[in-house]
């Protein structure tokens, strides 16, 4: 089983356990909203661009709301669990599931896990950590383009990649999974450490960036 499928199954199991009204790290969204978001991005390709493009966000929000009215919570989770239909890009090009959904589903799994009391980071396979590091090396500057200060992401073994080239800068250290969550805007819930002056670190921790 691929890491994308493993994360999908684990996320859906957690959504089933928590029910529709549990909190998530996605501002303003409970678990029902997050499930509808995942259905939308895989099954409503007409509305998916609004996830990233503000000009289209209104249409996306309206479609997501209709999904929550049309489908019960168990139906929404079932659609997520079943994965994207065969006629979508994910179905037509199976490799896209591993390329795109491994990160997407991991981040949203943690959005649910880390919004609950008593969470701790999971022990992840080394190859999954390496997948996240490759994604950071290729995309950190894009994810963190809105950071108000310079950012260097550093693994515990000393390997580094730039999140944003600017001064003053902060060195953020953590396992690749934690750095990925940080780069996706989950700063307060990523287990990382900071090297930099207090004011610069505070600005970075309070900034809005990611997808």
Protein described:
The structure is a single chain. It contains 9 helices and 4 strands, in the order H-H-H-H-H-H-H-E-E-E-H-E-H. It is α+β, with helices and mostly antiparallel strands. It folds into 2 domains: 111 residues, no CATH class; 71 residues, Nonspecific Lipid-transfer Protein, Chain A, CATH 3.30.1050. It has a 4-stranded mixed beta sheet. Helix 1 packs antiparallel against helix 4 and helix 2 crosses helix 3. It is globular, with a radius of gyration of 17 Å.
Intertermini distance: 27 Å
The helix-and-strand class reads: alpha+beta
Please indicate the count of domains. 2
The radius of gyration computed from the alpha-carbon positions, rounded to a whole number of angstroms, is 17 Å
Mean pLDDT: 92
Q: How many β-strand runs?
A: 4
Strand order of the largest sheet: 2-1-3-4
Major sheet size, sense and barrel closure: 4 strands, mixed
Order of helices and strands: HHHHHHHEEEHEH
Count, helices: 9
- State the helicity in percent bands: 40-55%
- What assembly state would you assign to the polypeptide chains in this entry? single chain
**Proportion of strand residues:** 5-15%
Please state the overall shape, judged from the principal axes of the Cα atoms. Answer: globular
Compose a concise summary of this entry.
By secondary structure, this protein is α+β, with helices and mostly antiparallel strands. It contains nine helices and four strands. The model has no long low-confidence stretch (mean pLDDT 92).
């Amino acid at each position: 089983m691929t890491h994308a499928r493993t994360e999908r199954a684990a996320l859906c199991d957690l959504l089933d356990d928590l029910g529709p009204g549990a909190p998530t790290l996605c501002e303003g969204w409970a678990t029902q909203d997050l499930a509808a978001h995942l259905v939308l991005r895989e099954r409503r390709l007409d509305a998916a661009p609004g996830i990233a493009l503000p000009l289209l966000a209104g249409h996306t929000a309206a479609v997501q709301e209709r999904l929550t009215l049309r489908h019960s919570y168990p139906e929404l989770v079932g659609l997520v669990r079943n994965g994207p239909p065969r006629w979508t890009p994910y179905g037509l090009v199976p490799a896209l599931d591993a390329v795109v959904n491994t990160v997407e589903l991991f981040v949203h799994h943690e959005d649910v896990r880390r919004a609950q009391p008593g969470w701790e980071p999971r022990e992840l396979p080394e190859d999954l950590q390496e997948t996240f590091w490759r994604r950071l090396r290729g995309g950190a500057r894009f994810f963190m383009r809105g950071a108000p200060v310079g950012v260097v992401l550093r693994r515990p073994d000393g390997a580094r990649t730039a999140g944003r080239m600017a001064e003053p800068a902060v060195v953020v250290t953590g396992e690749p999974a934690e750095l990925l969550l940080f780069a996706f805007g989950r700063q307060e819930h990523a287990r990382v450490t900071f090297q930099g002056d207090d004011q610069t670190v505070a600005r970075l921790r309070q900034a809005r960036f990611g997808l």
